Sequence to fold (225 residues):
Amino acid sequence: MFKDLLKLFFPEVCLSCSDMLGDNEEFVCTGCRHDLPVTNFHFENPDQVKKVFYGRVELENATSLLRFQKKGKVQRLLHNLKYKGYQEVGEFLGAWLGEELKTIDLYKDIDVVIPVPLHKRKLKKRGYNQVSIFAKELAKSLRAECIESVLIKISDTKSQVNKSRLARWTASNEIFSIQNLGQIHNKHILLVDDIITTGATIEACSNQLLKAKNVKISVASMAIA
Fold:
């Protein structure tokens, strides 16, 4: 009864379309779950995301769960995750992609999952790293270890949302560093991010991780533009 009263005065809404949720719906309504633009790259076109990085960094595998479009449902969903505190969105997307990747041989030997880090100043202000939430759910599904003590962000950059492709690449270059390399020697790493646009952030992070001995890098993201 108390929950019903709460819903009456503070109705829960879909984090993608803002419509009211039904009794058996959480975070995202049934309609949006069916309408979210999944890529299915890891099932049908495993080289599609790797093409973004050809000639830039060597990857074993790469995929993305959803297609990102401005003013679309995916953008609203990720905005709620990143800026509105709805961390359950990261758990939802991580569990979704994790359940799919664990059925694919290419991802069965993942040893560690590493999220693209936030700068400590931004992490303190926001209170959480939305990519870490996603990474932890992926690690659970893949029975891998989620490590956040190796890759670090050493420069606090501004949001890249409205930047050009060249500006994004310049901003991502040399703003990451690496420590505790012994934790990832001889490992197959799954590097994860929220959105892949130009690939500059993944490229910069991968170049740091490749300083470890005998590592392989695969990539997964919530969405790709």
